[in-house]
Amino acid sequence: MTVDISSALLDQLLAEAEAAHPCECCGILLGESERIGAILPAANVHPDPATHFEIDPQTLIDAHCAARAGDPQVVGYYHSHPNGRAEPSATDAALAAGDGMVWAIIAAGRVAFWRSGDAGFEALPYVTSPR
C-alpha cells in the first residue's frame, strides 16, 4: 500500500510539529483507504507531552461520529517526536492497537508513514500530489 497525500498536508504536518515543539503534536488523519485528504489537529492531553502523546478523546469521538454521518473516515493518526526519529518508538509499539491504521510520525523535518498491524509497524511509502 502506498499512501497518497498532498504536499500541502505534508507541510501542515511539519508546521504542527514545529508549533508544538518541544512537546509532541498529535491529531487524526482523515480520508479514504490509503488517501489522506485532511488532518484534524488535536490537543495532546498526555501528562508528559514532551515525550508522549494522547489524542484528546473528545476530538477522536467527534471525528468518528462525523465519519458515520458521511464526513471523511478516520484512516489513522499522527504525532511528532520532537527529539527523535520519524519511526515508531518502543512506547508507540507498546500502545498501538494493531488495527491496520496509518500512523504519520514527524521528526527532524520529515514525515514517515507506518501501518499498525498484528506483527507491529510496517513502513509505508507515500506519494505527494499538488491537491
UniProtKB/TrEMBL annotation:
Pfam families: Prok-JAB. Gene3D superfamilies: Cytidine Deaminase, domain 2 (3.40.140.10). InterPro entries: JAB_dom_prok, JAMM/MPN+_dom, MPN, VirAsm_ModProt. Residues 3-131 form the MPN domain. Keywords: Hydrolase, Metal-binding, Metalloprotease, Protease, Zinc. It comes from the Bacteria. PANTHER family: CYSO-CYSTEINE PEPTIDASE. This is M67 family metallopeptidase. It comes from Qipengyuania profundimaris.
